[in-house]
Write a structure and sequence with these properties.
Strand content: 15-25%
Number of domains: 2
Order of helices and strands: HHEEEEHEE
Oligomer: single chain
Largest sheet: 4 strands, antiparallel
Number of strands: 6
Number of helices: 3
Distance between the termini: 21 Å
Strand order of the largest sheet: 1-2-3-4
Radius of gyration: 14 Å
Structural class: alpha+beta
Helix content: 10-25%
Shape: globular
Length: 115
């Protein structure tokens, strides 16, 4: 199952449960609650989910040692890899809609990717 297919699904959805069982096994997430969302972080596996209205709104994957996460070892969307440079990403997707810190939001066909 691709990461993109998880967007909009509930954490209780069978597809999400299967993905988590395969990816994070029995590890419990670190959960941070915000006004409208919750962030479920699996630092050892390099992935985090923003949950809004009980559905996955955003998926974050991390390279090694980024914000205390290990490198995500699953398949990245949109033919991305952690070896791509910012300039290679801009060449492929065009200029980001904004920049700040380490984040570069880029509009793709159905969603935003943030690098």
């Amino acid at each position: 199952m691709s990461l993109r297919e998880l967007l909009g699904l509930s954490l209780k959805d069978q597809k999400v449960e299967e993905f988590l069982k395969k990816t994070v096994k029995d590890n419990k997430p670190e959960i941070k609650k915000f006004k409208e969302t919750e962030c479920h972080s699996y630092k050892k596996e390099g992935i985090a989910f923003d949950i809004k209205n009980e559905k996955i709104e955003t998926i974050f994957v991390y390279n090694d040692k980024c914000y205390g996460f290990n490198k995500f070892k699953g398949e990245l969307p949109e033919e991305l890899s952690f070896e791509l440079t910012n300039s290679e990403i801009v060449k492929k997707y065009g200029e980001p809609t904004g920049k700040g810190g380490f984040n570069m939001p880029v509009k793709t066909k159905n969603s935003f990717l943030i690098f």
